[in-house]
Amino acid sequence: MKRTNLSEVERERALEEGIDPSLVEETKVKWVSALEIISQVLSLDCSNIEVVYEPKRVFAVGIDWYNSQSNLLIGTPRRETPFDYYPDLEAKIGGVAHEIGHLADYDQYPDAQYVKSSFGGCSLRESGISFEQRASLYAFALAPTEFQALVKTRIQSNRKRKSGVEILWRYDGEYEAIETLGEIGMPRTFNVARFLKELFNQASSSDEYVESSMKSSLYGLAKSPDSDLVMLDKSYDEEELDRVFSEYMKGKISEEEFNARRRELRSVQYIEGYNPAKSIDYRWIIRDPAISRLQEERKKWQRISCTPEVRNDMITALDYCIRELEI
Ligand SMILES: [Zn+2]
To answer: 97: CA distance to ligand 1 center in Å?
Structure first.
């Protein structure tokens, strides 16, 4: 049984943040159960992974993967995010799956020197997607429903943290789907940029939040897997992409201009025949139940009413994972 109560150090950290320790404790209990649930679908011994409250971290959850004693570090609630960033258990399971994905990735590429922690940034020669995307893809293959819950909750919690305002639009399900696909580096035949522009223009306020949150959706492949770039080359300038995208969303440049700039920046969203699911390691996933979970999710997506391209792109992503697990 994992320790769920707070240590003295954790209690002090909570008080330093001005957060009620019992709220932190409640959050920790849920992370511990998420970890226990994930350990049941992995052939990996998770018994040495401790859940530790670490509010100084930038992210709401992380893992210190370089230690033999790995810790799942939880960063909220804290001063600037005084609530549980991933409140429901489902999203927490997706979060733990992503962090386990980092462990699997580190195990697969032990000599890699990761230089930049971002979705679009560094990438290994073996893979057209970045290491964050590989961790997310691993989580998606392991727990597809929960990973999508994680993305959805992140969108909602970001809204809550940045604006405190609930922004309502018609497309929530599709927006979450394209964010998910961007985060896992899966190909999209769907015109993501046009969709986001439409979404931006119908948001009730032109607040910065809407603009700044639309990022993962755009991240496609970090680089072409066939390209001969240096192993840890930062393949495109994300800040520049964000800037150009912002101009496009505000109607300052046309779609053609945006696409041309994007090509110059070598931000690639889709390469015919490239399958990112081949770049990750499924060794720790207990295969048969994982395939059933993916097939269940596939059935759900067949029934969802949404733009056909979004549905097809999501089903392609699920199929790619199913096929790799079946090998
Ligand atoms: Zn990560």
So the answer is: 10
Going from the Cα of 117 to the center of ligand 1, the distance in angstroms, rounded, reads 8
CA of 94 to the centre of ligand 1 (A): 11
> In degrees, to the nearest 5, what angle opens at C-alpha 90 toward C-alphas 88 and 96?
105
- Summarised one tens digit per residue, pLDDT across range 167-208 is 555 566 788 888 899 888 888 888 888 888 887 777 655 455
DSSP one-letter string for 38-72: HHTTBSS--TTPEEEE-TTSSSSEEE-TTSSS-EE
Q: How far apart are CA 114 and CA 108, in angstroms?
A: 13
The Å distance, Cα 62 to ligand 1 centre, comes to 7
Place of tokens 């059935």: 299
User: What percent of the chain is helix, strand and coil (3-state, nearest 5)?
Assistant: 55, 5, 40
280 C-beta neighbours (distance < 10 Å), count? 26
Measured in Å, residue 133 CA sits from the centre of ligand 1 at 8
Where along the chain do its domains lie?
A: 1-85, 90-326
pTM for the structure as a whole:
0.88
Tokens in use for 45?
């011994």
pLDDT higher than 50, residue 122: no
| CA 310 to centroid of ligand 1, rounded, Å | 24
- Beta strands of 64-111 (E only): which ranges? 71-74
